[in-house]
Amino acid sequence: MIGAALEMTGVSKTFAGVSALEDAHLSIQAGEAHALMGANGAGKSTLMNILGGIVAAEGGEIRIAGRVASIASPRDARANGIAFVHQELALLASMSVAENVLIEDLPRRGGLIDPAAMAARTQPLLDRLGCGFGPQDPVEKLGMGDRQMVEIARALASNPSILIFDEPTSSLSAREKARLFDVIRKLKAEGAAIIYVTHFIDEIFEICERVTVMRNGRIVGSGATPDFTPGDIVKLMLGDIHQADRLRVTPAAPGERVLTVDSLSAGGFLDGVSFTLRVGEIVGLWGLLGSGRTEIMRAIIGLDPIDAGAIALRRNGALVPVSPHEAHQSIGFVTEDRRGEGLLLPLSVARNVSFGNMAAVAGRFGLIDRNRERTLATGLVERLKIKLNSVDQPVRTLSGGNQQKVVFSRWLASSPPIFLLDEPTRGLDVGAKSEILALTVQLATAGAAVLIASSELEELMRVCDRYLIVQRGRIIGDLGPDADRDALLAAVSETSASSPTLSSVA
Amino acid sequence: MTAIAQGTLGHWFTRNGFLLIVIALFLFFSIVTQHFASVANVLAMAHTMAPLVIIASGLALVVFTGKLDISVGSIAFLSSAIAVLLMHDAGVNAPLAFLAALVTGALLGALNGFVVVFLGINPLIATLGSMIALRGVALQLTNAILIALPESVRGLGNATIGGVFVDVIIAAVILIVVHVLHRRTVFGRRLDAIGNGEDNAIRIGIPVPQTVFLSFVASGFLASVGGLIGLLQVGAISSYLGKGMEFTAVAAIVVGGVSLFGGRGTILPGVLLGAFAFTMIANGLNQMSADPYAYKLVTGGLIFIAMYVDALRTRRLRRIPIRPPAQAAS
Predict the structure, then answer these.
(1) Which residues pair with A138 in a beta bridge?
(2) What CATH topology corresponds to A6-238?
(3) Chain B residue whose CA is closest to A263
(4) pLDDT tens string B126-181
C-alpha cells in the first residue's frame, strides 16, 4: 500500500485554556473521499483550519505524501497542495468568474493582468467541472449551484492534491448535489485526496470510502464507511446519552390548539413543514445540525422569508390565519445568541427588561418611570432566581445562564402564549442548563405552548411531551413521550433513501 | 410578466440611467443657454474639474475597498500650503517644493492608512479626524492668509498646449493610469475583492491590511496632486483651498456609479462622468444666471438619487437567488 496523501498525528489546540482539539489523528489516501463528521463544537473546523493554515496547531505533525509539512498560513497550505472549498462561499460577487477563480494568482504580462490568459486558464477548469457558464460572466448572475462550481474551480486552480469540502451541499438542490457528487467522483478518479465535512449522514455512504467521527475535540471513530451503519455514526457523534431525571410530567389530555403551521416552505431550506402546538405542551424539534430546526422557527416569526404556507394562531377562542410578522407579536423567541436576540449587554438588567415592556414601565407623560422599571425587574429577578447584586448591574457582568434568564424575564413580563426556544441552553454550564429547562417546564405549566430545539437529546428528553423529527427541512416523524433514546436516534439516522413516509403529523 | 419587464427595465436604468441624465442635462443647458455647448466652454469645464477628477480618482481607490477617506480636501490644502511656504519663506525652487507636497500627500495618506488598518479605527471617523486636524495645521502654518505663488510659476495654471490646458492633459493621463491600476493590476483587483467582503478576502488569502493601507497612500498622494493643480489655477494659497472638496469628490464618485459598499464601479467612465455632472451643473446654472444657491439644491438632489440607485442595486444583489422549493424536493 502506498503512503497516505495526508497524515495528521497528535494534533492539539486550545482556545483560551479550553481544549478544542486533543491528540487528533487523520489519515487520508489519494483517490479517496474521507468523511469527517461530528456535532457542533466537535473540533472538525479547528482541525480543518489547522490544515488550511488559518489556525496554528499546538504540537503534532502533518505529513503530506510522507514528507513533514509546516503550514503557518493559507499560502503555505496552498503551496503544500491543499485547497479549501468553503461552506460559506468566499466569492467576489461583483467580479467575473475568471477573476474569482484566479484571484490568488492572476496571470500577468508586463506587470498588467492579461485578460486573454485569464480566460484561457479558467475555461479548462470550467470544462472539467461541466459548467455551462463562461469565464467572463459576473458571479452575481449565477445561481447557488454554479457559484459552488466557481468555488471549486478556484480550489482546482492551484492544482491541489488534497481538497477539503466543508459542508458543500447545505444550500444545494438535489440536482446541484448530484452534479457536485459527479465532480467529486471525477476528482477521486484523477487521484485527489478529498476530505468531506458534512452533517448529512446519507451523503457519506454515497461518496465517501472512509469516515472519521469527532466528538469534544477527539477522534472517536474511524474506518471504512461500509463498516458503519448510520446509527453507529450518530451514536459516535452524540456520545453516551445519560438519561437525566425528567423534569416534567406529561399532561394526560392535550389542550386546545394554539398554533398551526401548514405546509411552510422557504427557498430550499424548508419543504412543506406542518405541525400543531397545543396549550401547555412542550414539543421537541429533534434533528441533526443543519436539518432545518432553526429555519423552521425563524420562518414562523418572519425572520426569514417564506415562499408558501399558512400560520394560524388562537385568538379569542378561534384559530385565525396570521402573517409571520403578526405571529411574532404573540411568540416569545429565545436562542443561544443572547446578544443577537436583543440583549443590550452594556445596559442594566432593569433597562433590558423594560425593552418590550414599555407600557408597563411608562409613567406620566409617557416617560419611563424609574421606580416602575425597577419594581418590574425586581419582581422578575426574584421569580426567575436570577443571581445578581442589583437590577442596575449591566447585563454583561452576569453569567451566561443568568443572561439567558434575563431574556426569559423580558418575555415573561408580556407572557406570550407561545414560546420558540432554539438551543436555549447552548454554552451554559450544567446547573444553568437545568434551571433554564425547569423554567421551560414552568412556562408550559402556566399554559404556554413551547417548541424547543436542542442538539443535546438528553435535554429534550427531560422536558418534551412530544418530538417532531426534522430532516432536510422536512418533518419526517412525530414521536410521543414514550419514545426512548434509541428510537429518537434511529429517527434521525434514517438516510433519506430509506426514510419512511410521513408518519402521522398532527 | 410585468414583474420581469419591470425588473429588466429597472436593471437597465440602474446601469445606464446616469448616462442618460448627463446627456439630458447637457442638452438642456445647450438649449437654454447660448454659450454652454461651445468648444471653449467645454474646455473650460474640463479645466475647472481637473483638480476634482484627480482627487476623486484617488479617493475611489479607497471606496472600492468599501472604505472612505474624507480627509482628501485637507490633505490637498496642507500639502499645497507646504509647497507655497517652502517657495515663499525658504526660497526652495518650485520643482522641489512640488515634490515635497507630493511626498507630504503620500505620507498623510499613510497616516490615515495606519490609523484605519493598524489601529482599527472606523475609516469615516479616522479621516474625519484628519480632515479637521490637517486643515488646522495648514491654517496655522499659513496664518490663514492669502500667500501668492512666486512669479516664476504663477502662469503655469493657465498654460495650454494646442489650446488645451496642461492640467487637463495631466488629469486625463492620471485618470487613464488610475483606471488601468484598478482594472488591470493585481492591486486593483484586490481592492474590488476586499470591497466584496473583507472576510471573504481574508479567507481567499488576499493581504487585506497592506492593500487597504496602500489605497489610502494613493488617495493621499492624488489629493496632493489635485491640490497642487488647484493651487496653480488660483495662483495663491488661500484657506478655501480644498474646502468641501472631500464631499464633492465623494458625491462625484457615488453619482458616477461607484458603490460606497465597495467592490463595484469604474474610474472610466464612472468617476469622470460623476465629476463632469457636478461641474456641468455648476457651469450651466451659472450661465443661466440662476440663483447660486440653487446649485446646492440641485447637487443635493442628484446625490440623493444616486445613493438611492446604489441602495436599490445593492439590495437586489443581496437577494441571492435561491432555488424554488419544488426543486428542493425529490
Answers:
(1) A96
(2) Rossmann fold (3.40.50)
(3) B325
(4) 999 999 999 999 999 999 899 999 988 888 888 888 888 999 999 999 999 999 99
Q: Which residues of A touch B193 (CB under 8 A)?
A: 92, 95, 103
Tell me the CA end-to-end span of chain B in Å, nearest whole number: 28
Each domain of chain A, given as residue ranges in start order, spans 6-238, 257-345+415-492
pLDDT score at B330:
31
Q: Do domains A6-238 and A257-345+415-492 have the same CATH topology?
A: yes
- Nearest residue in A to B64, CA atom: A94
Q: pLDDT at position B50, please?
A: 96
Chain A contact residues (CB < 8 Å to B): 54, 73-75, 78, 84, 86, 90-95, 99, 103-104, 106, 108, 111-113, 140, 143-145, 154, 171, 173-176, 265-272, 307-308, 473
Residue numbers in B near A104 (CB within 8 A): 204-205
Q: Answer whether A99 sits within 8 Å of B189, measured CB to CB.
A: yes
| Residue pLDDT, tens place only, A322-370 | 988 888 888 988 887 776 666 888 888 888 888 878 878 888 788 888 8
Distances from the Cα of A383 to the Cα of A282, A393, A415, B52, B160, angstroms: 21, 18, 14, 65, 84
Residue A249 CB contacts under 8 Å (≥ 6 apart), including other chains:
none
Chain-chain contact of B186 with A271 (C-beta, under 8 angstroms): no
A307 and B203 within 8 Å at the Cβ level: the answer is no
Helix (H) or strand (E) holding A313: strand A308-315
Q: What's the whole-model pTM score?
A: 0.75
Q: Region of A194 please: left (phi>0), alpha (psi -120 to 50) or beta.
A: beta
- Which of the residues in chain B have pLDDT under 50? 1-6, 318-330
Q: What percent of chain B has pLDDT over 90?
A: 63
Instruction: Please report residues of A whose CB lies closer than 8 A to that of B192.
Output: 92, 94-95, 99
Answer yes or no: CATH 2.40.30.10 is held by domain A257-345+415-492.
no
- Taking each helix axis from N to C end, the angle separating B245-255 and B72-88, rounded to the nearest 10 degrees, works out to 130
B16-315: in CATH 2.70.50: no
